[in-house]
Every structure is written in structure tokens, then in C-alpha cells.
Design goal:
312 residues, alpha/beta, D-Maltodextrin-Binding Protein, domain 2, Double Stranded RNA Binding Domain, 3 domains, five-stranded mixed beta sheet, globular, binds the ligand NCc1[nH]cc(CCC(=O)O)c1CC(=O)O, Porphobilinogen_deaminase_C_sf
Amino acid sequence: MTVEMPTPAQSFKIGTRGSPLALAQAHETRDRLMAAWDLPQEAFAICVIKVTGDQIQDKPLREIDGKGLFTREIEEALIDGSIDIAVHSTKDMPVAHPAGLVMDVFLPREDVRDAFVSLKYKSLADLPDGAVVGTSSTRRRAQLAARFPNLKVVEFRGNVQTRLKKLADGVADATFLATAGLRRLGMDDVPYTPISPDDMLPAIAQGAIGIERRGDDARAAKMLAAIHDAPTGARVAAERAFLGRLDGSCETPIGALAEIEGDQLHLRGEILSEDGARVLTDAATGPIASGPDMGNAMALRLLSRAGPDFFR
Ligand SMILES: NCc1[nH]cc(CCC(=O)O)c1CC(=O)O
């Protein structure tokens, strides 16, 4: 089969949400494709898709519909051919994809760590007893309750800009964001400190941009193969196998991190009760290719330790 590369007249359509972070990720994807294929910017169109989740800013996500809220409409655009690829924050993606779509291309992973963001304090350890921290993430909330019970956690939604405004307004003493997002947005003026994964194990696939396409689109597959980062793919595969076996929705407190050293993959995972009263952690090491098996096995071990009542 011959696969034709896009020409300026035959644009390759990159679908994305319209948030500043989503746009930065779409631009990174386009820049990497331009470099890999020596194509001009005009060969690509960045198609912004307004999704329902972005239009609801005043409620915690779990009160709306959580899973798929930010991705369903983008996937519909892929399926109907309005776009050729969709650029996602992998950590926001359900493990299962709609029939006909695949996500097997990942860009080199950014910093995986959560960031402590505060206008007043330097790190989590500096916060006085009773300090107020804002987060909407059940994972971060449970991890804080488990390891920093001296803090008061309040609900904090919105994109990076909204949360920073809330900090400036004194709604909370600190908040948490993915370091990757801050870096990709070039927010060098924001005072943040990355948090050790020992204190806050990141979300599955945090910092990894994933690219979804139609499974039968040979042109997109070939275009994307040139920008795939295999180590990121292996790490994400291990973490997502763990998540998939746990069958966690994005609202279940779960953290995991795979790291590669030589030909070995180290995987850490944890599940928490929502109040942080129970924390179950596990770790494993094995050949890189066995990452998904390791993630799967780790989930089964944690599930059997947790018992049937652990997840609400
Ligand atoms: N849930 C929103 C979201 N999805 C991806 C990122 C950051 C970038 C990434 O982890 O790839 C963020 C913001 C955050 O958690 O601070």
C-alpha cells in the first residue's frame, strides 16, 4: 500500500480541546510532525473542538459525568473524519477506546511529578497545621489526608489560570498541579516545587501526551510512527494496564509510576480509600516488555489485599 503524505492542499487535521494546555500539546505534536517529515506548518490544521466539560466550571467533575466528558466529542470528530488525529493528556483518557479508535503513540514524557503551588509557602512540609489547600483530584485529596493530615483540603476546580487566580484571591494557601502542565505552558513565573513521588504518587500517565487515531487510517499511523517515543509508550502501557485491571474510574484514588532503568521497568502503584485512612502500595520490577503483565498482576494483588469493600 502506498501512503501519501499530506500536502498543503491536503491538510492533516489535528483535533484538540481549546484550553491553553491542550493547545500547547497540539502545537507540540504539530511541531514534531513538521520536523519528522520536513513539512511546512501549512500541511497541518489545528482543529479546536469545544467540549462540554470545558463549559462547566462551577461543579466538581464527579457531580457531572467524569469519564469521557472531555474526550467523547473529540472521539466523535475522529470517527466521522472531521479530524485525523486527536491529541490528549493521556491521564485524562479512559483505558478503553471506542471501537475503531486506537491510541498507541506517545510523545516523550514530561516531568511526571505533581507540583506544589503556593504564593506563600515553598513546599508541603512548610505548611502550618490547618493550612488550606485546594484540589479537585480525589487522588491528591486522599494522598494528602493520608500523609499530611494536618492540612484542610477544599474543592478547587478550573484550569491552571483559574486556580492561580483563586490562590491570588486567598481562597487557599496552596494548590497542586501537574508539573508537566506548568512546563508545557511555560509558566515560569508561577512559584511551584515538584513533589517527590514518595509523597504523592502521580496519576496514571501523568505528563504523557497520547495521540489517538482511526485504527484503519494508514496515513495517520505512518505519520505518527515517526514521533512515537517507545520508552514513554512502555511506561504508559504498564501504568494503564494497572488502571485497567483495577477498573478505576478517573475519580478513584489511584496512583502509579513506571520508570525505566536499562532494560528493566520499575512499577509502583497505590490505591487509597477516599478519606486516606487506607493506603495500599505495591512495587515490582521486570523486563520492559512485561510492563502490562506487571501492571495487571500488581492490580490483582492490591485488589485481593483491599477486599470487596475498599472501593465504594
Ligand atoms: N486533569 C487535568 C489535567 N490533565 C493533564 C494535566 C497536566 C498535564 C499532564 O499530566 O499530562 C492536567 C492538569 C493538572 O493535573 O494539573
